[in-house]
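User: Assemble these into one structure.

Assistant: Restating your components, then the assembled model:
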Amino acid sequence: MKIENNIKLWSSLGMRATFGMIAIELAKKYPDLMITTSDVSTSAGLDRYKNKYPDKFIDVGIAEQNLIGVSAGLSSEGFKVISTTFAPFQTLRCCEQIKVNLGYMKNKICMVGLASGLVLGNLGFTHCCIEDVGTLRSIPNIAIVTPSDPFELFKVLNEAIVYKNSVYIRLTAGSNTKIINNKDYKFKIGKAVEILPGEDVVIIGCGNILGNCLEAATALKKKKIQCAVVNMHTIKPIDKEKVKEIAKKNKLIVTVEEHNVLGGLGTAVAEVLSGEINNCKLVRVGINDFYSSGGSYEYLKNIYGLSVEKIIQTVLSNLKKNEK
Amino acid sequence: MKNKKKYIEIFIKSFSMDEKKFNEKIKYNDIPEWDSIGHMTLMSDLEEGFNISIDTDDIIDFSSFKKGIQILKKYKVN
């Protein structure tokens, strides 16, 4: 497989189609792989997988509690299991099963939450998902990873399948995702990646919204502001050392996430900082704990301060406040 | 291409297209149905229809109806 040589092409496919492609590669590598779903083989890009490996694909129907129950059972019998459906249904509808079967009983599966964040905004907040990270973060023994682009998703899935605990993989954005990673790099769950250096302010982000962070940082550079961008792909376990290191060297951290500011990446960073003596201000950008009306992805990102322009404004206004 | 009729039929079925609206200049993302997810459905239908297994690189490279004809030649679908 030549994924490292085809980063741009892979990104054009988007997260979900890439997931479907990687599933086939994983099935070749792991004969004991099972993929379970709640009625979303096409939406998850899994049609090819389903046709190639009908015995390794279980569709439980629209019954997400069963999705987790069946997946946990397969895991207890020694299978490597990936479950998938749209993010709100993969996490919230079956939350008790996740808590008991995965967190408490420690059955290990990988859960892939499709189209999380705001990308399904036209369907309203029944389908947008801004609560998944906050909810799952409070359950022990589950890692939470938000890949920034399809290339990183490839790395995440390959690590998650052999990771010691269950992993929730949160997919954001639609097709034609922004390319965050232009070259190959070392990926490890729990280890953040600095994707742009800078010394005046640090943006910590996760998921494909990092594309907006990079564009904002590039625009700020033209205003002589050196803005670093860090890809905190793993929200749990968060890279504490990296957060502490950033806080020691900088006076302003801006977290950017396609999630409620309560319970997500910004909260996780704040929790690390709260145990440290530092002089670093933290500003959390994300969904500010309210449901708006439905709308397009771009519209909602703007409403919630996640557009490139709004991120730039947030950085500039907080740098000014810091100077006073 | 001997299998052209079948190839077109698969396109039409995969994207639930109106037969009359199909044209051979179609490219990835030209119509809403040929997005990334639709692409995977098309690949699946082609694999099933021609009893082949398309390599990952070819799936990514399959950017248009015409490009598809070239790629399928590799799999002896002429």
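Chain A touches chain B at residues 1-3, 6, 9-10, 12-14, 16-17, 20-21, 24-25, 42-43, 45-48, 50-52, 175-176 (CB under 8 Å).
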